[in-house]
Write a structure and sequence with these properties.
single chain, alpha/beta, Dihydrofolate Reductase, subunit A, eight-stranded mixed β-sheet, 4 helices, about 20% helix, binds NADP nicotinamide-adenine-dinucleotide phosphate
Length: about 180
């Protein structure tokens, strides 16, 4: 069965964005040359053919003001209250998202990238649908913000399979569901 992988970046204190939803703090290394495959991104990207995201995450991506970044993938946006407006290669899913993701996982295709954010991560984690978590930690403390998993997340155990330090501000931990 294909895996659902949460590939995401967080601060030391477990936030994935500021309170207003910004992720600019992840990209403040302008003076350093960033390798195209930094943080294993290209290898990871070629291992998946589908992305999942909550509406708030989709909205942030649209606000970047760049062409939609995953045009070669099948992209699903979860939203109860919004309709698709932009001409992007995404499909909106309104209801039964747990059933939808369970069915998606049965298809014999490449793995699935759970992009986030915190609300969708919580729903899918609580239903034991997340098989792998790849967290890239940036060594900053935000103090407040949007958490990796929203309030109401259940206790879960994961097994660490790999830990890697990239430079003096990023390290990555790969974990599998126990
Ligand atoms: N650091 C990183 O790598 C990273 C990665 C991803 C995201 N982020 C950040 O995370 C933030 C967003 O996280 P978030 O927790 O606020 O929101 P989110 O999980 O991205 O999206 C939440 C939205 O999903 C929809 N939703 C929730 N439950 C649903 C259900 N059962 N069925 C259908 N739709 C449902 C609702 O949209 P409607 O209100 O439209 O119904 C809800 O408001 C953004 O700021 C983004 O930049 C950071």
């Amino acid at each position: 069965m294909r895996k659902l992988k949460l590939y995401i970046a967080q601060s030391i204190d477990g936030f994935i964005a500021t309170e207003k939803g910004s992720v600019e703090w992840l990209n403040d290394n302008e003076n350093e040359e960033i390798d195209e495959n930094a943080y294993g991104y290209l290898d990871f990207y070629s291992s998946i053919d589908t992305t999942l995201m909550g509406y708030n995450t989709y909205k942030e991506i649209v606000n970047f003001g760049i062409p939609f970044p995953y045009p070669d993938k099948k992209n699903y946006v979860f939203s109860k209250n919004h309709e698709k407006k932009e001409d992007n290669p995404v499909e909106f899913i309104k209801s039964n998202i747990v059933e939808f993701v369970s069915n998606l996982k049965q298809l014999d295709e490449k793995d699935i990238w759970l992009i986030g954010g915190g609300e969708i991560n919580k729903i899918l984690l609580n239903k034991n649908l997340i098989d792998e978590i790849i967290i890239t930690i940036k060594s900053v403390v935000l103090g407040k913000g949007i958490p990796l998993f929203a309030n109401g997340t259940d206790f879960k155990k994961f097994k660490i399979t790999k830990v890697e330090k990239f430079d003096d501000s990023f390290a990555q931990i790969i974990m599998e569901r126990k």
